[in-house]
Amino acid sequence: MKESLLENLRIELNRIIVSLFFYKKLIMKDLPNIDPALLNSIDNDKLFSSSENTNKPKILLLYGSLRERSFSRLLTEEAARLLQFFGAETKTFDPSGLPLPDDADANHPKVQELRDLVAWSEGMVWCSPERHGAMTGVMKSQIDWVPLAIGAVRPTQGKTLAVMQVCGGSQSFNAVNQMRVLGRWMRMVTIPNQSSVPKAWLEFGDDNRMKPSVLYDRVVDVMEELVKFTLLLRDKQDYFLDRYSERKESAEELLKRVEQRNS
């Protein structure tokens, strides 16, 4: 009885495999440019599996001003408090002493500190003032010191990102829009929500804490959303970053190496 059941299961499994093979061949007729061996169906088990990682999500915060009373730093501090409430572990990089890109070696202590923090993090918050209609040089320098690749490792790929800005006058979105472009360029998952605080000098009290307002509520929303996205993506980054084009490139490189050995 047991052997008969196993044999029936084997036959059914073979039938499914053969059906999937012919189904894929039928589909491939409409996709002649595709290598069917490298094109995978969406794996729901990997996509919707629960995370086994129970550690606090690690969030790195960067701000874009060196002023003694820097409102981008103060807003970053408010964000860090909220992130900690939502269960995250936070670290904030102090950009003071960071050299301009290409004006020092990558072994500079501040550059190494920044890169180590980026490697440590699962997500980031970028907060910049808007100066002359753009993010500040202090903010851009930090981002420019983070390379797209270190050897075979892309240090920012797949990490989550939230962007915020502070304005000296009326509300603007130039800095956050620029940072979104940079986040996409660095293959980060930039969350939909964002914060722009107009007339930032009116939004913080003498105690350097942000006053209650709809602007503060938006910061709460952004940090809550960042933690949710970070938790959703953790333990699934390898699957999200598994791309057809890179599988194809890897297969072609392997074939070249085999051909070279056999030549």
In short:
This protein is of the alpha/beta class and 263 residues long. The protein has ten helices and seven strands.
Structural description of this entry:
- With 263 residues, the chain is of the alpha/beta class.
- The chain folds into two domains: 1-33; 58-238, 3-Layer(aba) Sandwich (Rossmann fold), CATH 3.40.50.
- The protein has ten helices and seven strands.
- It has helices spanning 2-28, 44-47, 71-85, 109-120, 137-144, 174-185, 200-203, 214-233, 237-240, 244-262; strands spanning 58-63, 89-93, 123-131, 134-135, 160-166, 189-190, 195-197.
- Strands 1, 2, 3, 4, 5, 6 and 7 form a seven-stranded mixed sheet that branches.
- Strand 1, helix 3 (71-85) and strand 2 form a beta-alpha-beta unit.
- Helix 3 packs across helix 8.
- The radius of gyration is 24 Å and the shape is elongated.
- The termini are far apart.
- The model has no long low-confidence stretch (mean pLDDT 86).
